[in-house]
Design goal:
There is one protein chain. By secondary structure, the chain is an alpha/beta fold. The protein is built from 15 helices and 13 strands. Among the domains are: about 140 residues, Leucine Dehydrogenase, chain A, domain 1 (Rossmann fold); about 170 residues, 3-Layer(aba) Sandwich (Rossmann fold). A 5-stranded mixed beta sheet has the order 1-2-4-3-5, with helices on both faces. A 5-stranded parallel beta sheet has the order 7-6-11-12-13. A 3-stranded antiparallel beta sheet has the order 8-9-10, with no helix packed on it. Strand 8 and strand 9 form a beta hairpin. Helix 4 packs across helix 15 and helix 7 crosses helix 14. Pfam families: ELFV_dehydrog, ELFV_dehydrog_N.
Length: about 450
């Protein structure tokens, strides 16, 4: 692959998957899967395009737009759109690659993809963002559809942007179809979709806690990074289940609370309002301490750590600090939230400390709740009907339980463990997702 440009984010995601497959007995039991790995690691299609839009001064501006249609063996391509200046092909290939296996773990008929643009919504007027969405969809609409590719939101793309994108798609194609998820509740969206990633993360970790015999979230202290949609709803669900939440963060620093005066639902409501206005946590006027330039992991003592901000937000040193502080569970609400070095620290501790270890869950399993409810939204759109919040939430709980059990049982089958070790959720989830996708590709003649 030396003829290809360096793609550090994608290479990290690829190497993380390969390392767990190599360290399992999968290739011993089924050596033909090495061929499948070569094929599944290359996207089916990569679309790049120019986005020209007009700012409020009537001047033309240009950005790069992308859609990586990675794998459709299990269903239409499915994955978010990200509007952020750091967006490039490496980032989107990493996200799309992860999405393939994440979507497989939901048990739903959805493939994997990712897209977006290097457009920065910060500092732009609502009118400029709307005009960018229209220009972006002018090209993207040629490549997506309800049975082809169904994007959703991601960083920089909230329900408001989904609405503008959907309106532009409808105007371009003259079709009302479930081509985007995360839509408004009164025009095709699903109840529980905004909450789904955060709620699903907490449901997944609750199974981890129960499996180890440590009860539930009741009485646990939890550190959360990020302050967007995922972090907000994860925090609210933790509080609802009786946990104490002691941190949130943004790109500029961390909000640190004490166990005596923890973060409350009222705090989260204020923070959510700041995020809507694209303001920083430095504008939060409350009782908690804001520490600029840090992430929360070295400033708290917790039972559970939930990184919910962005990729590579837990380093090797921060992983060691979490273990030293007594943390017992870490699960990624963000995609690839931990560096490979951090994962190695967690996995080494899991193997050496048995039932006293920290237990790590990768994002492709732990944060699959968002895309799972997006898949449920697609089902509701196909039926031209809506399910109640209770129905969707119950289905979400079932999907997260199945993803957890699948990871546990697959790890037991393919990964040799010592006496008293917790199963490797990273290995089990990687293998389970990979095998499901590879088997479908085999049935469809993509490899033989």
């Amino acid at each position: 692959m030396s003829n290809l440009p360096t793609e550090p984010e994608f290479e990290q995601a690829y190497n993380e998957l390969v390392s767990t497959l190599d360290n399992s007995t999968l290739f011993e039991q089924s050596p033909e899967y090495r061929t499948a790995l070569k094929i599944v690691s290359i996207p089916e299609r990569v679309i790049q395009f120019r986005v020209v839009w007009e700012d409020d001064n009537l001047q033309p501006q240009v950005n790069r737009g992308y859609r990586v249609q990675f794998n459709s063996a299990l269903g239409p391509y499915k994955g978010g759109l990200r509007f952020h200046p750091t967006v490039n092909l490496s980032v989107l290939k990493f996200l799309g690659f992860e999405q393939v296996f994440k979507n497989a773990l939901t048990g739903l008929n959805i493939g994997g993809g990712k897209g977006g643009a290097d457009f920065d919504p910060k500092g732009k007027s609502d009118n400029e963002i709307r005009k960018f969405c229209v220009a972006f969809m002018r090209e993207l609409s040629k490549h997506i559809g309800a049975d082809t590719d169904v994007p959703a939101g991601d960083i920089g793309v909230s329900g408001r942007e989904i609405g503008w994108l959907f309106g532009a798609y409808k105007a371009q194609t003259n079709k009302w179809e479930g081509v985007l998820t995360g839509k408004g509740g009164n025009w095709g969206g699903s109840l529980i979709r905004p909450e789904a990633t955060g709620y699903g993360l907490v449901y997944y970790v609750n199974h981890m806690i129960a499996y180890t015999g440590q009860g539930s979230f009741q009485g646990k202290t939890v550190a959360i990074s990020g302050s967007g949609n995922v972090a907000q709803y994860a925090a609210l669900k933790c509080i609802e289940l009786g946990a104490t939440v002691v941190s949130l963060s943004d790109s500029n620093g961390s909000l640190i609370a004490s166990t005596d005066s923890p973060i409350t639902p009222d705090d989260i409501q204020v923070i959510a309002a700041l995020k809507v206005k694209r303001q920083s946590l430095t504008d939060y006027q409350g009782k908690h301490r804001y520490i600029a330039g840090v992430r929360p992991w070295t400033h708290v003592q917790v039972d559970v750590a939930l990184p919910c901000a962005t990729q590579n937000e837990v380093s090797k040193e921060e992983a060691e600090a979490l273990i030293a502080s007594g943390a017992r569970f870490i699960a990624e609400g963000s995609n690839m939230g931990c560096t490979q070095e951090a994962i190695d620290v967690f996995e080494a501790n899991r193997r050496s400390q048995q039932d006293k270890a920290i237990w790590y869950a990768p994002g492709k399993a732990a944060n699959a709740g968002g895309v799972a409810v997006s898949g449920l939204e697609m089902a509701q759109n196909s039926q031209r009907m809506s399910w109640s919040a209770e129905e969707v939430d119950e289905k979400l709980k079932g999907i997260m339980e199945a993803a957890f059990k699948n990871g546990v049982e697959t790890a037991k089958k393919y990964v040799k463990g010592g006496e008293g070790e917790f199963p490797s959720l990273v290995a089990g989830s990687n293998i389970a997702g990979f095998v499901k996708v590879a088997a479908a590709m085999h049935d469809q003649g993509d490899w033989w």
